[in-house]
Each structure stands twice: as C-alpha cells, then as structure tokens.
C-alpha cells in the first residue's frame, strides 16, 4: 500500500474521499456507430446524496435527493430548471421510478424503525401505499404496470424476484444478482446483473413471464451499473469515463467520452430517455484539493481526519464480540450504526440497516446451536479496523478477515473477506516485491505483478490498470523520492490474500497505510489500498 500514497498525486482527477454525489443531464447524439455527449449540466446541485435518476416523462426527471437530513423523491423540471419534492414521509426514499400507465411513482422506502419496502406515491397528492408487503426490496424495475423485477435481500445476499403486484404473488428466478435492472427496449425482456462468478459479472436477459434468462454480455470488471441506449447498445461508466457496447458489433466496451471535465470522478447510475436523446448520470464528484496545498507530491494532500482515535475505533469493534459469543442479539446489534452496510469484499452488497442485520443474525442463531468468534489479529488505521477472526459454527471452524468502518455511532460498515484457497504461499511474492520496492529496482518490482495487475482504493476505485501503467508510475516515484522505504508492522495471511499494515517513509516523514494483496499463479494480481 506504500504505492498509492505517492501514485495518487500523478492524476489530479483521481479524487480521494469522495462523499458528494450529484445528478447530471447530458444531450446525446447518435449517428451510425458514433455517440456524442454534450451540454452536461448538474441538475441536483445539492450538498449530500443525490442519486438514482430516471425520466418521469419528456421534461421531468426523478431522483433521490437529500433534504433536512433524509433522502426524499425530487422532481426536476427541465424546461423551468426547477426542483420540487413530491413526498413527505418520515422514512427515506430511494430509486424512484414512474409506474407504467399510472399517475404515480414508486420508491424503496427505509423507515426509521428499519423496515424497508417498496411503495407507490400518488403524484396528485403524494400519498403512499405499500406495494409488496413480504419482501425486502433493495433495487427494482417495472416490467409492466402490475409486474416488478427486483433484487430482494434474502439470506445475506440479493436474489432476483418477479412480483405480480395485483395478485400479490412473487417468484424467485435467480440468486446473487446486482442492483441494475432495466426493461430492454423493443423487447419483452428485462436485463439484470448476474454475480455468481467472482471473476466476471454478466449482463443477462430475463423473461419475467417464464423465468428464462440468457447471457447478453459481460460487464466491465467490477462495474454493475448499465443502461440501454436502444435495443442493441448498452452504456456504462468506469471512473469518470462513459463506455458503450453495441451487441454483435463491438467485441469489448468502447470509450465514448471522458466526463471528468464536468467534475465527475466515478460514474454510477445511468438512464436514458426513450428517444435516446438525453442521458442522466449520477456520480461521485472529484474532491477539490485544499487551496493551501501547492506541492502535489505532499502526502498530506490526500489524508483525511479520523473521526475517532485508533484506540476508540478498536474498542468500538471489540464491543460486538462478547454479545455475539453470548448470543445476546440486541446488545450485538446495538454495536452497529442504524444505517450499517454489510458487504463482501471489495463492495459486493449484502444488506443494510441495523434491523436487517438483526434479522439476519436472528436467523443465524436460530439455525446454528453453537457460534463463537475469536480475534486472532487486529490492525487499525484511522477509523478502519481489520480483524483476523477464528469463527466456530457448530463443529466447523474457519478463518476469515473482516473490515470494519467505525464512526461515533458504532460500526457503520462491515466487509467480509473470503478465505480463498491459494496455489502457492502468497507471502513469498509479496515479500519479494517489498524488497524490490525498498531497493528501487523497478524491473524486479514489476516482475512480481501480473500483466493485468490492477490497483484500487478501497473499496474498488481503480487507480492503475496493467503492468505497463504500474511500471511508468513507480519508475517516476522511485526517482522522485530518494528515501522511500516501507516496512511491515502487522500482517494477516488469508488464503491467496496478504493484508499488510505498512510504515512508509517519504521525504523524511512517516505514514501508515494498509494494502490487501491478492495473489494468483504466483504473482500479485490485484492490490486494494486503505489509507
């Protein structure tokens, strides 16, 4: 992880610690195989969370937007450049969509008591009605005015359900799916993201009437947000760049436009109007560097203040261990923030909210007579804690690692790292690259990495792609920092992963960071940095 501290400065558009999402509206012009994106405008322009945009009609746009400390349904009028809110509930609304053939919109509502359900909102008076009372819907789309296709939180993962609203009947058709659902233009199909494979996520089609699904294409690595420009062309984004894939024409995703000039650091949700002339994008904004920072090679340019001391963060995580072992469900759940998010590494969403966590562990304790967790090793960096844990469930004992993100209200995020079998000792190659790093031997250093090596900022923001890019960046770093040195202060080895907390010397100053190395076929294939 010694790498990222320096490498981040070689691109001013990288953006660190992004927390502000905005919604942008663009004009689209499509000719033959060329797509032009122009006249971008920030239509949310609001401090905090603005996300999940969709077209209500030709001149009105829906999105989730923060006001008065909670998220509600915003409606933006294109012709008048104005925004209003169409609901007023105590809960927070997400993913607003027009309900076909009705004067109403729908949204996922998370109430203050932790209840999460899909609701309809009458556009004439704002009144809401629960649509599906027995499923915890996380993401969804409408197939027709009576049918939804949705990702439902179930058994600690997202599973695909088709629900007939009028008959109140639901049927599960797929497991381990993503958050992106879209009606495929000029068809009777819906697309969804299939995440059963750790190596490659798939974009698949579903016939909601029969449950049959087929492979359409692969998504870009680590990307699950897509939309349809028309019946043949998909749009997606990675970092600040928009890509397209035309079926039966493009062999791979093709770059359309770099949107970083609009301040977009990371594209997430996308949506087009039915005519394919307008594009909505939600994305993280590039964090501006402080005015007082002039030297972009100064690590302080990207460091952030910890909310808690490291001792306080470790103590907050430790609080959940004893009540878990004693099966004290309420005490265990109360060590987590009410809005806690639970993922599989690096950012595979499982569920969110203290109530959802409580219900998951209620079932876990019910299904398992014995459960015990023991912390074998712990590393702490600012408000993040990584524990190496020995978990015994009934008569089976396994090792795992968990990343905890802590704030003043407790554990606000928990990310489980799988113990994946290794074909060789991963420490060997990680130690070899450390030695080459400290001797600044660029050739030996790059030999320890695979040709398709990727470097990421946790959870999964790509910063370096490929061995050639790695060599170029590190060669410059080795030349610019004569006293560059890294030493390991703590290590966890889990299957094919090596997790190091490292002490890094840069221009006479000491910094700490955590690197998660993943090893494949004897070489480092991926590194995720926490700093």
UniProtKB/TrEMBL annotation:
Residue ranges occupied by any SnoaL-like domain in the UniProt entry: 317-410, 432-525
Pfam families, alphabetized: PD40, SnoaL_2
InterPro entries named among the record's database cross-references: SnoaL-like, WD40
Name of the molecule in the record: Nuclear transport factor 2 family protein
Organism: Winogradskyella luteola
